[in-house]
Design brief:
Mean pLDDT: 81
Number of strands: 0
Low-confidence stretches: none
Strand content: under 5%
Structural class: mainly alpha
Largest sheet: none
Number of helices: 7
Order of helices and strands: HHHHHHH
Radius of gyration: 19 Å
Number of domains: 1
Distance between the termini: 24 Å
Helix content: 55-70%
Length: 128
């Protein structure tokens, strides 16, 4: 593997190429998606909605969260986009984590958005 890295990047030392480690944009989008999906199922206190009543509760909570985000921040969250997945992009995740207190208030998940924001900050801040 080391020979392959040297062949692909002839002038770069291995320690430099592995310095950053995490791709923080993808981590932030994943955190954003995970918090949303946890918030949708928060009233159930279960990991899976199996009955029609549970599915209805999850759908109502999802619609409430999406509506509240759109009204309060202008963000369109977790909506399908034609041609390429959904609206959970890097810009949406950045805006979501820019105000973790509002995110916690809307989703009902306390402290986690704030902690994940600090994780992303520490990864991008150049702390070694």
């Amino acid at each position: 593997m080391e020979k392959l890295l040297k062949a692909l990047n002839p002038g770069v030392e291995e320690s430099q190429s592995l310095r950053f480690g995490l791709i923080i944009l993808h981590a932030r989008i994943f955190f954003f998606k995970t918090i949303l999906h946890l918030a949708y199922k928060l009233p159930l206190k279960k990991w899976q909605a199996t009955t029609p009543e549970d599915k209805k509760v999850v759908q109502e909570n999802k619609e409430r969260i999406q509506k509240e985000y759109r009204e309060r921040t202008g963000l369109i969250v977790d909506m399908p986009k034609i041609g390429f997945g959904n609206s959970n992009s890097g810009n949406n995740s950045r805006r979501f984590f820019s105000d973790p207190n509002l995110a916690a208030e809307i989703t009902g998940i306390k402290n986690i958005p704030n902690r994940l924001q600090r994780c992303t900050w520490s990864c991008t801040g150049g702390i070694q």
